[in-house]
Amino acid sequence: MAYGFVLDDYASFSAWRPLARQSFLAGCAPEEIEWRGTSEETTLFDTPLASPPPARAGAQPPVLRSQCHALLRSILRHADKTRFALAYRILWRAQTEPALASIATDPDIARALRMHQQVRKDVHKMTAFVRFREHGSAQAGRRSFYAWFEPDHYILPSVAPFFARRFVDMDWVILTPKGSLAWNGDTCAFSPVPCAKPKLSDTIEQLWQTYYVSTFNPARIKTKAMLSEMPRKYWKNLPETTLIPRMLAEADARVTAMAAQAPRPAPAFHHKLQQRRSATAPAVQEEPAPPQHSGKFIASPPSDVSL
Amino acid sequence: MKQSLSDRLALLSDAAKYDASCSSSGAGKRDSAATKGLGSVSNGICHAYTPDGRCISLLKILLTNFCIYDCAYCINRSSSNVPRARFTPDEVIWLTLEFYRRNYIEGLFLSSGIIRSSDDTMSQMVHVARELRQTHNFRGYIHLKTIPNASPALLAEAGLYADRLSINVEMPTEQGLAAYAPQKHASEIRHSMGEMRTHIEAGKDRTLTGRKPPRFAPGGQSTQMIVGADAATDRDILSSSSSLYTGYRLRRVYYSAFSPIPDASAILPVKAPPLLREHRLYQADWLFRFYGFQFSEITAARPDGMLDLELDPKLAWALANRALFPLDLNRAPKEMLLRVPGLGVRSVQAILSARSHRQLRLEDLVRLNVSIRKVKPFLYATGWTPGRLAERQNLRELFLPQPQQLSLF
């Protein structure tokens, strides 16, 4: 029989902490403890897990520096099955190497930092790519919105404050395969129950698509830059990305047409403006010539600024 | 013919897209938890990317593309035949709020063609910002373009509501501006920037009793220069940037490679500059802002004043100053590590904190996502000594990108 624990997917630092502490006080080395997730399938060969023995006499509780503590908090939101074991190994090693977390070249820390970056990126992309769609009409002055998003990691509790502090005056629900968030103006409720993708539509999306197409400059195609920031895995849930193939297909023709266009005579109001200007401002003083022509646009700091 | 809202959105966002500024950060943190309204600001989020590689962070539109100015590089100049349109302030407010609620944007970047007078145009833009803040309780990001010559009272009010203000210098040299934008004057633009700098700095100070002054654009001011429309070299452009950053305390200078526009003016060059040139200018800008370089160092070794298109400016600088290398990975000061091609600000920070506990080997850098191939000629470390760079004859060839077969099409 092996020592170990079964933790659910959303087990956070605070759920893991007492178990890690118990194992540490019992003197169990990282390789003696097995950390399993509830969503992992158990096989016939898996041995049942037992709690570690009681604490050894005189054992000191583990201590972590704040940098290490923050790192463990972050990586326990990662979807990697080995996160609990890695966190325990870092906890174990940090007792004899207190500065461990600041050594980014250490293999364990390098891996933890990579996981930390992935979690951070997932959080950031969720704040960027969630798209709310309005549902029904306003009830008691509050409008309601739904969104569907597919995060890679267990980040819903971490992003909840962002959405709850930004979209305060409307009701909203964010559904994901890893649970949901719902806001009603007072509280933000989190549920770990997986959701199915809802069917939603919103007429404003047409205006958004109009904006997306118009703000694109066909004369500078940089699809690699676009893909590195907005990888294809996000495309299926974004209302604007369906237009990309057409935008790219038409770009060349638009640029050629711009280049081929012969200069046309200016419109009538341009001539009127020119006439009015020459009538009001008699020639010469168009240029308030600087004392000496330095060539630089700005030669020296402005004299009218108190330094 | 009446234009629908969608038609006008298409026209007025198409007309605004040549302004490269997109930042929605630098204004501190705030949210709507206490005000029960809508919107928050923190580090800036890019909500979408278009195939031109640029991000969409703000709803970037013009109030109107009618303009009494005739600047040759601009799609909205009075002599252009583009269709004209205008939004009412209420339409801009509605679009901003509806887009924001759906999490498409971080806020609004409002600019405008100049109609009637500077003050008239500016007051309409300030009206939009005031309504958003006061009537609609909007706490998202607002970036307003400042119209040259607008009255100080309007400027002060704009700073009260906006997170960032900007005015474009457009051309890197005064001659360029005179040739392409006959109605704009460098001295006026300079004056507006100086005034904004004074306001922004006053807005950050506290009085003797510790009271806060009225808010003024906490995100600072930025500007944009058009690259490749006139004959200015990269050295001219970067020395303008240098005085803009130091003399006017700008937060950002944007470089916008002159891009073909519909119904272009006959005096513009036919061929657009390579996008790579714009990229190199941004790299040089980064070296100045984050790596402790001076602009003059970056262009010092370039006889024609243009940045090397084949090598990035940091590598080009290192090759020109090869006598300073190789450096000891375990002992070199931070300022010098930042100058090693292939090391970024983050990896330098990681090296500094790791090496105070352990001796570093070159292989350790792999775990910091540093390319060993790039850095190894410039560093020595425990177990690694590079050949002497200064003695290599074909130095430049070593670092040039692999030749590529030309496209047949």
What would you say this structure looks like, in words?
The complex is a heterodimer of chains A (307) and B (409). Chain A contains nine helices and eight strands. Chain A is an alpha/beta fold. Chain A has three domains: 2-123, no CATH class; 130-191, no CATH class; 204-260, no CATH class. In chain A, the strands form two sheets. Chain A has a five-stranded mixed sheet, with helices on one face. In chain A, β5 (144-148), α5 (156-166) and β6 (171-176) form a beta-alpha-beta unit. Chain A starts with a strand and ends in a 27-residue tail after the last helix. Chain B is built from 14 helices and ten strands. In chain B, α2 (89-101) packs across α3 (118-134) and α3 (118-134) runs parallel beside α4 (152-161). The mean pLDDT of chain B is 89. Chain B is globular, with a radius of gyration of 24 Å. In chain B, strands 3-4-5-6-7-8 form a six-stranded parallel sheet. Chain B has a two-stranded antiparallel sheet with strand order 1-2. Chain B folds into two domains: 5-273, Aldolase class I (TIM Barrel), CATH 3.20.20.70; 313-399, no CATH class. The two termini of chain B are 43 Å apart. Chains A and B meet through α4, β4, α5, α6 and α7 of A and α1, β1, β2, α2 and α5 of B.
Number of helices of chain B: 14
H-E string of chain A: EHEEHHHEEHEEEHHHH
Describe the main β-sheet of chain A briefly.
Answer: 5 strands, mixed
Helix share, percent of chain A = 25-40%
Number of helices of chain A: 9
CATH architecture label of the largest domain in chain B = Alpha-Beta Barrel
CATH class of the largest domain in chain B: Alpha Beta
How much is the radius of gyration of chain B in Å? Answer: 24 Å
Look at the structure and give the mean pLDDT of chain A: 87
Oligomeric state of this protein: heterodimer
Poorly predicted parts of chain A: 283-307
- In whole angstroms, the N-to-C terminal distance of chain A is 75 Å
Percentage of β-strand residues of chain A: 5-15%
Q: CATH topology of the largest domain in chain B, what is it called?
A: TIM Barrel
* Tally of individual domains of chain B: 2
H and E string of chain B: HEEEHEHEHEHHEHEHHHEHHHEH
**Share of helix among residues of chain B?**
25-40%
The tally of domains of chain A stands at: 3
Instruction: Write down the overall geometry of chain A.
Output: elongated
Count the E strands of chain B. Answer: 10
